[in-house]
Amino acid sequence: MKKLQKCGEIYWVLGVLFVSLGVALCSKADLGISMIAATPFILQEAVFSYWNGCTVGTMEYLFQGFLLIVLCISVQRIRLKYFFSFVVAFLYGLVLDLWLLILGRDPFQAIWMRWVFLLIGDCITAFGVACFFRTYLPLQVYELFVAEIADRYCFPVAKAKLGYDIASLVLSLILAFCINLDADKFDWSKIYATSYHFIGAGTVITVLINAPIIAFFSKILSKATGEEPLFPKLKTFFIK
Q: Contact at 8 Å (CB) between 112 and 36?
């Protein structure tokens, strides 16, 4: 089968659309979302009572902006690509809000539907991430943070990613418990059917299946499409 060529820019568009759609579906399942996506949802839920104009997408790019400041302090440098990553975070936040508006925020009623749509959301997110891995265009601050920390301190990228994932999980747990202060009122016997402020059994499942699904879609994309840019000069600008 002949490969579909020059997909470098298309991958970026698909990444933004599918990652945001997958996260929106997982949040609607109300079984817990990934540790990386959970923090903006938790913060937005807490801030909304004081600022009702704060959407999940708004909190998403605000949090990534804060993370970008932490990155600059940590690596003691500022690069132009950092700015572009924040622009991507801003666009991602807008698209995420659009998906949440289309799908609605109310969770599915039937438990089996929650689990089905959680798995569908995880697969869609993984496909989007696989697309991001194949584009030269700037990614979100999350991926930039891992790459720059690994480069600055000569860490293996895998170890830097593991450390970041663990830190994200710890931060999400701290925020969920410390901001809300209602853990004693939550029925933990039903954690399989609902989440505690976006942290739940679905979070664990997502962590376990995420990497294998990303690898699966990456293999399919490698066989069916090419990574060549449609606009070579644009690629030269971003990778120089």
A: no
> Is 60 or 140 the better-scoring residue by pLDDT?
60
What's the pLDDT tens digit per position in 45-70?
A: 989 888 888 999 999 999 999 999 99
- What end-to-end distance do the CA atoms of the chain give, in Å? 33
Structural domain boundaries, residue 220:
8-180+190-224
Task: Give one DSSP letter per residue of 161-190, joined into a string.
Answer: HHHHHHHHHHHHHHHHHHHH--GGGS-GGG
Tally of structural domains, the chain: 1
Residue indicated by tokens 């689990």: 115
State pTM to two decimals: 0.89
- Kindly state whether residue 237 falls inside one of the protein's structural domains: no
User: In angstroms, what CA-CA distances link 44 with 53, 57, 92, 109, 161?
Assistant: 10, 9, 16, 23, 25
